[in-house]
Design brief:
This protein is an all-alpha fold. It has helices at about 5, 10-40, 45-60, 60-75, 80-90, 90-105, 120-130, 135-150, 165-190, 205-225, 235-250. The chain has two domains: about 5-135, no CATH class; about 160-255, no CATH class.
């Protein structure tokens, strides 16, 4: 049996499906408890139902990006593992980047089933899990203390200042995000820069072109939100940018 057949075996489907089913049950339990809590404090039942329906509606398109991620990773990692990762805690940009980085570190030319071994698959799964587990763990350990600091007030009942609730927190998050984007863009540019420092089209310029398409698409979404007063479109901006960028990659790939 080939490795990809093993990665799509019924055993893995049962293991991963059981975990996903448990998470789904937990979501339903929280939904019911939240609805009952809203009723108990006097919220209108009709408004609660509208909130539930609108939330479910606005979750459909972002879920398409998750499905695309599962399909994209299934060719090299099988269906059950990407399905589990992207259904519970993972994000498409994180899973693909970490999996590709792990594959490259193990000497694979790309994240492909042709070069995948049992050892490389295990290493990729382990790295994908370890790198993202710290967020939930830190929330369990430090979440209550952090929340108490956010809600702390002085003797007059005024909320105390906190570096993470003011301008510094927003600036720090924005700076880290810009740094991350610059690192990726820099690696893309490095892939098409020749030895003499001049741009050439002999390198792989596809990642940079796709990044530009994604950025322009996001700019369009932002323009629509601000100029047309369509705040609802923000829920679709990331997913829409990803889908347009993926489509651009498909059309531009033959030109590389």
């Amino acid at each position: 049996m080939e490795l990809l057949d093993k990665l799509n075996s019924p055993t893995l489907y049962i293991i991963c499906g059981s975990i996903i089913a448990f998470i789904a049950v937990v979501c339903v339990v929280f939904l019911v408890r939240a609805y009952r809590a809203g009723i108990s404090i006097g919220m209108d039942r009709a408004k609660l139902r509208r909130v539930i329906i609108s939330s479910a509606t606005f979750s459909v398109l972002p879920a398409v990006a998750i499905l695309i991620g599962v399909i994209a990773l299934s060719g090299s990692l099988g269906v059950p593992w990407p399905w589990l990762r992207l259904s519970v805690i993972g994000a498409l940009h994180y899973e693909t980047q970490v999996a590709s980085a792990a594959a490259e570190a193990m000497g694979m030319s790309s994240l492909s089933a042709a070069e995948m071994t049992a050892g490389s698959f295990t290493t990729i799964c382990l790295l994908m899990s370890i790198c993202i587990m710290w967020g939930p763990l830190l929330c369990v350990i430090l979440g209550k203390r952090y929340s108490s600091r956010l809600n702390a007030t002085d003797e007059k009942g005024k909320r105390k200042g906190n570096i993470f609730t003011g301008g510094f927190g927003d600036l720090a998050i924005t700076s880290m995000f810009v740094g991350l984007v610059c690192a990726y863009i820099g690696s893309y540019i490095g892939g098409i820069v020749s030895g003499n420092g001049l741009f050439t089209f002999s390198g792989n310029w596809l990642p940079l072109a796709v990044a530009v398409v994604a950025a322009l698409t996001m700019a369009v979404f932002v323009w629509i939100k601000e100029k047309k007063d369509a705040a609802w479109i923000e829920s679709f901006s990331i997913c829409g940018s990803m889908i347009v960028a993926m489509a651009a990659a498909i059309f531009l790939a033959p030109l590389v």
